Amino acid sequence: MIQNRKYSRFKWSHDLWLHRVMVRIYNFLMTIVPFGIKYGIGKNLRKNKPPYFLIQSGSVVIQVGAPKDTLNAGRSRGMHFILFSKKTGTTIIVEPDQESISAYQRKCQRLGIDNAIFIPSAAWFETGTLRIYINDAHPASNFVEGTKIYNERRLQDFQVVEIPATSIDYMLEQNEITRVDLVSITTNGSEREILAGMKKTIAAGIPYISLARTGEGYQVMMDSIGYVFYAHDDRGFTFRQEKILSKQSLDKIL
To answer: Does a structural domain hold residue 238?
Structure first.
C-alpha cells in the first residue's frame, strides 16, 4: 500500500534551533546503542514504507547525502539501503564529506558488507569545485553555498570548504553502472542541480526518485520531467516515472 500520510516531523526543520538541539541529543544517545539493535529495529519499521519497500534483492540504488551523524544514530537512509539491497544488490553512496564517507567504509568493513560503492564527491550538474558549508556538530545540515540563506549568527555554526563535484551521470559511467532502480537525494536545497546532472540516467529510465523536503515546487518540477507523486516518505517525497523523456527534452527543462 502506498504511504500517503505526511510525517509530522516536517513541521520541524534544521532552521529551527530547538530541532537542531533535540536532534543532536538524540544522535548522541543513539551512538551507544549497538548497531544490530538500532538498525534491526530500523529495518523492521521501514520494511513496508517507501522508498524502502521498493528495494528488492538485486536492486541498484543511489543515495546522495550520507552524513555520519545519521549513520551513528541508526537512522541513515544510505545504510538502510545497503541492508535492504543485500549482497545481490548495489548501493552507491555519494557524500562530499570525507569523514562521513570514511565512517561508512569503516562500518561496512567491520560488518563484512561489500555491496556498497562509496563516492567522496559532491553531486552537481557539472564537474568543478563547490564551496560547501559543513557543521561538524550536525553534518545533516551541510549545504552548498547559495542554496540556503542564513543570517551571520547561524553561519557561525559552519566552516566553509572547497570540495570537488561532478554529475551522477559521470559517476555512474566511471563505475560502469548502466541500470538504476532508485535514486534518493537528501541534500539541503541542491535537488534541482543534482537532477540536472543525471539527465542521461533519467532518460535511460529510473523507476523511482526520492527527494528530501528541503524546498518548494518539487511536484511541478518532477511532473515536468515525467514523474508523478507516488508517496510521502520519511525524508520527503517519492516519485514514480510515468513518462520517459529524451535527454534532449530534459536539457530544455533542467
So the answer is: yes
Domains held by the chain: number: 1
Encoded amino acid at 186, one letter: T
pTM above 0.90, yes or no: no
Print pLDDT tens along the chain (254 aa). 455 555 555 555 556 656 565 666 667 777 889 999 999 999 999 999 999 999 988 999 999 999 999 999 999 999 999 999 988 999 999 999 899 999 999 999 999 999 999 999 999 999 999 999 988 877 888 899 998 888 888 899 899 999 999 999 999 999 999 999 999 999 988 999 999 999 999 999 999 999 998 878 999 999 999 999 999 999 999 999 999 999 999 999 99
Residue 183 lies in a domain: yes
Task: Specify the amino acid at residue 239.
Answer: F
